[in-house]
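Run log // design_07
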C-alpha cells in the first residue's frame, strides 16, 4: 500500500512540477530573484555548503542512512555491497553534474560567484 500511495504522490508532484502554470512560474521567478539578490560571496558559500553536505568526504554515512531509511520504508532488504556500490557511484555522478553547472551555467548567471568558488577551492 505504501508503494501505491507514494507512487501516486510522486506522479501528482511531477505533474504539478511539469505543468506550466502561473503559480509555478511565480515560484521559480521568486527563487531566481532571491538567488540573484545574494552577494557573490553569499552565493559561493551557499553552493559550497550544499555541495559539501551532499557530496563531501563525510557524506558516505548520510547517503547510507538515507538509503536505509528509504528502503526500510518500502520494506526492501538490500545487500551491503549494493549500498556501497550505490554510494560510490551516485554522489560522484551528482558531483560531476554539479561542477558542470557551476562552471557552465553559474558562469552565465553570476560570474563573480564562480571566481569566489575557484579562489576558495585553491585554499
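design_07 sequence
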Amino acid at each position: 500500500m505504501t508503494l501505491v500511495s507514494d507512487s501516486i504522490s510522486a506522479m501528482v508532484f511531477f505533474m504539478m512540477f511539469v505543468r506550466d502554470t502561473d503559480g509555478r512560474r511565480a515560484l521559480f521567478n521568486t527563487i531566481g530573484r532571491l538567488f540573484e539578490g545574494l552577494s557573490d560571496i553569499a552565493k559561493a558559500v551557499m553552493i559550497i555548503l550544499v555541495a559539501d553536505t551532499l557530496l563531501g568526504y563525510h557524506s558516505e554515512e548520510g547517503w547510507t542512512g538515507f538509503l536505509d531509511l528509504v528502503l526500510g520504508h518500502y520494506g526492501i532488504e538490500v545487500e551491503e555491497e549494493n549500498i556501497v556500490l550505490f554510494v560510490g557511484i551516485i554522489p560522484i555522478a551528482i558531483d560531476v553534474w554539479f561542477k558542470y553547472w557551476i562552471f557552465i551555467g553559474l558562469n552565465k548567471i553570476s560570474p563573480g560567484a564562480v571566481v569566489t568558488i575557484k579562489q576558495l577551492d585553491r585554499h
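The chain has a mean pLDDT of 82.
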